[in-house]
Amino acid sequence: MNLKDCHNFDDFRKLAKKKLPSPIFHYIDGGSDDEVTLKRNTEAFNDCDLIPNVLADVGNIDLSTTVLGQKIDFPLFLSATAMHRLYHHHGERATAKAAEKMGTIFGTSTMATVSMEEIGELTKGPKLFQLYIHRDRGLTDNLIERCKKAGFNSMCLTVDTVVAGNRERDRRTGFTTPPKLTLGSLLSFAMHPGWTVNNLIHEKFKLANIIHMTEKGSSIDKSVIDYINEQFDPCMNWKDAEYCVKKWNGPFALKGVMSVEDAKKAIDIGCTAIIISNHGGRQLDGSRAPFDQLAEIVDAVGDKIEVILDGGVRRGTHVLKALSLGAKACSFGKGYLFALGAGGQKGVEAILKKMKEEIYRDMTLMGCKSISELNRSKVVFRK
What CATH number should be reported for the domain holding residue 331? Predict the structure, then answer.
């Protein structure tokens, strides 16, 4: 199996599983506790059906939209995810180049393995930086200032990770960053020599954005769960978020909003967007799926703030359903991380191309010439 055999999310997942050592694969694939919310994130889309119109003259379809102050070629972008060097030795360089080539936003994390400065020089495409507030508040100020200088267009603050979710798969596999050999993982690393050799001969693993600010930046050598619990500030509150919004003074989203109440507060502190997300089912298991919350939040605040859906997106039809309910755009993480593990930059380009083709084809079948024609008349929920 190779990239040409990958036609959908599941195919990229299977190829990534073949190429990545078990601890790395399961770090992408897993959720928290019983993984109920992880599964529900995608299943929620099945509760809603599309209603197409015919004879609509769809010879010329425009998929472009503007989100977070940035025009993109189609309404799906790369959610900011951590530590891309775990999945491919080119790391964020590969994903950034793929996003630019496909005309969409590249999201990069505080916990990236390629610095924001290098990303800023590498790509002129639209870029989003995902901020985490650490206990050391000087680190937060430093990240925001550097983002401005590096040419990032927008920022989001992740607000659902003040403590790590119970990711039991990571405990079972002994996942650490950087990866280390244990009796339990030795066989898996040995059975994936391509990944293992590339990891050994290329640059040393580091959290490039924070390595100069904390000793944890170069060798965490423990679980991500422990890192989050030690480094992220559980006292983070709305005043802290407002401080970040004002200091950034540009397109700014709160990521991890799941309630109408919090969506309204995001408006009050000056956010231009919210990202409805439960962290890919990796935090509070048993919480609602983002798609389940979308309509209620859009009805409450959709005319005052951009609403972005993140979580469970696997198909072009998922994107169309979200947009029909009022989302401005969607983002996804697991899909492109599997593609990165499966084939580096070419893999990420391949899954973005597949998703764009699906969205275009589905728009054609829906009888919609532009994103603006997707509305509540295009969907109905099953009873």
Answer: 3.20.20.70
